[in-house]
């Protein structure tokens, strides 16, 4: 039983009338007790996936499973899911206690039991003592915690959170990211969290689904996705990167900007056109002679921890560098990088193809040494 995924989508498609499809053949597995994030730009279908999980809308095609049982026809109030909406949807005319107690009153629990459960839930989100406060007397971060208390008090198996932090300022948001992650660990409930902020997704998740235009582009741990983006969309969306067209000459050799470089990728076709990604923090500023690339510094911005330096090579390609070294605008400098810093992306690769290539790569790695 415990090996059965708590939620599974099989080839789920969603379409309204004759509009373009909103979700296009989406399949994924959500395991019990982990923190999942749906990450993607506005309109890509994140909220629609949450609504399908919660049962607020029906799939046009495909199957949705909960604990191994098909739930396509099970109504929302019969699913073991609670949702925290983006605007928290708290009841402004009820105080904190009654907001949290709402679901328990509907279930007709005894007063004593309600009191005990609400107290525990408020304690969990650090709001003990706020029971009698009016919602309008609570700050944004506190309201957010009331909304979470209202979700956990029902002891659901899954909590869905639709951009719950987007209304908060940066400092509070960072604090709440930490608190939310801690809360999930303590409760052990499965969280499905929606955001369009890649840093938030990287900081919080066990697993991220990167979505674009109704399709899951890539799923994996934050490091998987950051280090091995499957395509240009993911590379671009997850952090700043240098993305440039190139060619796979043969195993372990790529060509870009008219030069050949050693890399760690293999298993592609010889002379296959590709794109490569190099992260700005993987480019090291050095002398012209030692540099693998020769560039001119165009702009330099201090970002607190590092300088963000924008350079151009002689072909007019832009290279973004993050470095603690200060340079001067107009300097001619060299950029050095390790073979491991080059990430090769196949053009239009699907997730299955990508997984196969990674697998072949790591198998080759262990017996090839
Ligand atoms: N009831 C509806 N009827 C028609 N189209 C809809 C309906 N609900 C959503 N859509 C469309 O489905 C697409 C996906 O919407 P969805 O709300 O899932 O996006 P999202 O990823 O949550 O975006 P955001 O980050 O802006 O919240 C959008 O193009 C939206 O206009
Ligand atoms: Mg949305």
Beta-strand residue fraction: 25-35%
Low-confidence parts, pLDDT < 50 over ≥5 residues?
Answer: 365-369
Integer count of domains:
3
From the alpha-carbon coordinates, what is the Rg to the nearest angstrom? 24 Å
DSSP helix fraction: 25-40%
Tally of DSSP β-strands:
20
Outline, from the CA principal axes?
A: globular
Structural class designation: alpha+beta
Write the layout of secondary structure elements.
Blueprint: E1 7-14, E2 23-30, E3 35-39, H1 46-54, E4 61-66, E5 69-70, E6 81-84, H2 96-106, H3 111-124, H4 140-152, E7 158-162, H5 170-187, E8 190-195, H6 198-204, E9 207-212, E10 215-220, H7 222-227, H8 232-237, E11 242-250, E12 253-256, E13 259-262, E14 272-278, E15 284-286, E16 293-302, E17 307-313, E18 318-323, E19 332-336, E20 343-346, H9 351-367
Helix pairs in contact: 2-3, 2-4, 3-4
The structure holds adenosine-5'-triphosphate (ATP) and magnesium ion.
The site of magnesium ion has 3 residues, from helix 1.
């Amino acid at each position: 039983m415990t090996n059965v995924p708590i939620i599974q989508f099989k080839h789920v498609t969603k379409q309204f009338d004759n509009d373009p499809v909103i979700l296009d053949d989406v399949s994924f597995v959500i395991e019990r007790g982990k923190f999942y994030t749906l990450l993607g730009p506005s309109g890509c279908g994140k909220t629609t996936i949450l609504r399908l999980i919660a049962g607020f809308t029906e799939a046009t095609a495909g199957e949705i499973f909960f604990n191994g049982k098909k739930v396509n026809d099970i109504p929302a109030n019969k699913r073991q899911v609670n949702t925290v909406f983006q605007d928290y949807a708290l009841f402004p005319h009820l105080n904190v206690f009654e907001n949290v107690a709402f679901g328990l009153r509907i279930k007709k629990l005894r007063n004593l039991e309600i009191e005990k459960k609400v107290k525990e839930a408020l304690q969990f989100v650090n709001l003990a003592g706020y029971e009698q406060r009016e919602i309008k007397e609570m700050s944004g971060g506190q309201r957010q915690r009331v909304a979470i208390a209202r979700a956990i008090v029902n002891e659901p198996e899954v909590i869905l959170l639709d951009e719950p932090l987007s209304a908060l300022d940066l400092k509070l948001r960072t604090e709440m990211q930490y608190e939310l992650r801690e809360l999930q660990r303590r409760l052990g409930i499965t969280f499905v969290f929606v955001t369009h902020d890649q840093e938030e997704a990287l900081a919080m998740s066990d697993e991220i689904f990167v979505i674009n235009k109704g399709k899951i582009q890539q799923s994996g741990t934050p490091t998987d996705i950051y280090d091995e983006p499957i395509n240009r969309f993911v590379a671009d969306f997850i952090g700043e990167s240098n993305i440039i067209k190139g060619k796979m000459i043969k195993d372990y050799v790529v060509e870009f900007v008219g030069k050949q470089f050693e890399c760690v990728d293999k298993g592609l076709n010889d002379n296959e056109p590709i794109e490569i990604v190099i992260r700005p923090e993987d480019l090291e500023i050095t002398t012209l002679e030692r540099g693998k690339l020769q560039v001119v510094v165009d702009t330099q911005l201090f970002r607190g921890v590092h300088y963000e330096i924008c350079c151009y090579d002689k072909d007019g390609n832009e290279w973004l560098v993050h470095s603690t070294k200060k340079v001067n605008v107009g300097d001619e400098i060299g950029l050095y990088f390790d073979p491991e810093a080059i990430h090769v992306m196949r053009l239009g690769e699907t997730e299955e193809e990508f997984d196969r290539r990674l697998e072949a790569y790591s198998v080759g790695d262990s017996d090839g040494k």
